[in-house]
Amino acid sequence: MPRPRPRAIPAREDDRRLSRPLCRARDPMRAACPARRKAPTVEIVAPDGLSGIREEWERLWRAVPDPSPFLAPAWLLAWADIYAPDRCRAAALWADGKLAGLLPTFVWESALLLAGTGPSDHGGVLIRPGFEKWAGTLVEAAAEAAPEPFERIDLQQLAPGSPLIDCAVPGWSARMEEGDCCPALMLAGRDGMANAPKRMRSNWRYAMRQLDRKGGAVERVAAAEIHETMAALERLHGLRWTEKGEAGMLADPLPSRFLRTVAPALAEAGLLQLHRLRLDGGTIAVLLAMQTEGESCYFLSGFDPDHAGLSPGTILVGGAIAEAARNGATRFDFLRGKEPYKYRWGAKDRSLYRHILTRSC
Fold first, then answer.
1. Where are the alpha helices (DSSP H) in the chain?
2. What letter does residue 193 receive in the DSSP assignment?
3. Which position among 89, 159, 176, 310 has the lowest Cβ density within 10 Å, counted as fewest Cβ atoms?
């Protein structure tokens, strides 16, 4: 028999569990103009409706304290287009005609995952202050609306204060695990490097003087040159990993397509921090980061091994730290991995968490 069409229902303030059916797929034609409601309502935004709520999504993202760029529509819409076309949907909480919460998810290998899982170094849910208690309701709604069976709900890379850490879902048992570590440097001082070891500050200044003597320069990439610079990043990243005898991240065509798609979107949203090191008329190193008001996230870089003596990595990372500080950021996030160079910059481990839920017996 065909499955009955689900519908949206109000969520009562004193009972945040939603009766079944939980919600209905949101019509993309009316997604951007929800009817005003007195009681919060959870709805499911279908894959073809995500772009229709982009403006509301953007406003929600900017209303959340310390928003991660990995939860911004610029990042996740590009991710959905490349990694999960027609498979990413979102549980949306509407209150008084405004988007108050959003949890995009998808099903992969028998797990309900947060949208962005894979390339995203941080995961989470967007919820306006005062609505944090609805996190479990959004997870439950996403689980109920999943288009295919799954065995577990796997919420990865959660920050310590994420509402998803403590959320409970009726009928599901939870366990918490430590996620990947993301070392970060707390920025202080005029150039942001007051907490970096003196040796690294000296190395950066020395490398900058050497570059200047050779006639090189570090440039912030303009919007018109993003495509060209991303191609250079792909080439330089590959050269570096080939020298190590390994295949880099961009050897896979999927991440490569994703980065070429997401970089212009991030630039349009004002989140892209793309730097290149130029010497003798060519690009010898590129660094890609994303910056919000509070932090800069260093995502990827590449440089020509033939110019390793110029310390291009040190030059670009130091430059990105200094720019982040000038723009008001207080944290420089080196993201996943415990590579030694991160700690040479003075980064301290920042633990993230993984919340796994399985059906109760």
1. 54-63, 73-83, 135-145, 163-166, 198-213, 226-243, 253-268, 312-326, 340-344
2. B
3. 176
Q: How far is the C-alpha of 328 from the C-alpha of 302, rounded, in Å?
A: 26
Structural tokens at position 231: 């191609």
**C-beta of residue 339 within 8 angstroms of C-beta of residue 195:** no
Contact call for residues 115 and 122 (beta carbons, < 8 A): no
Query: How far is the first Cα of the chain from the last one, in angstroms, to the nearest whole number?
Result: 27
Phi/psi for 43 (5° steps) reads -130, 160
Do 323 and 360 touch, CB atoms closer than 8 A?
no
∠143-145-149 over CA atoms, to 5°? 65
Mean pLDDT of residues grouped by 10 in the chain (361 residues)?
34 36 43 58 97 98 96 98 96 97 98 98 98 97 96 97 94 94 97 97 98 97 97 93 75 92 98 98 98 96 96 98 97 97 98 95 65
Domains of the chain: 9-180+353-359 (3.40.630.30), 184-333 (3.40.630.30)
Phi, psi of 332 (to 5 degrees): -115, 110
| Distance of alpha carbon 31 from alpha carbon 25, whole angstroms | 10
- Residue in the block written with tokens 């040479």: 344
Write the CA distances from 252 to 178, 246, 257, 259, integer angstroms. Answer: 28, 12, 9, 11
Q: Residues 278, 281, 286, CA angle at the centre, nearest 5°?
A: 30
Task: Check: pTM over 0.90? Answer yes or no.
Answer: no
For the residues of 136-147, what is the DSSP string, one character each?
Answer: HHHHHHHHHH-S
What's the Cα-to-Cα distance from 241 to each of 232, 302, 303, rounded to whole Å?
A: 14, 9, 10
CA pair distance 153, 142, nearest whole angstrom: 10
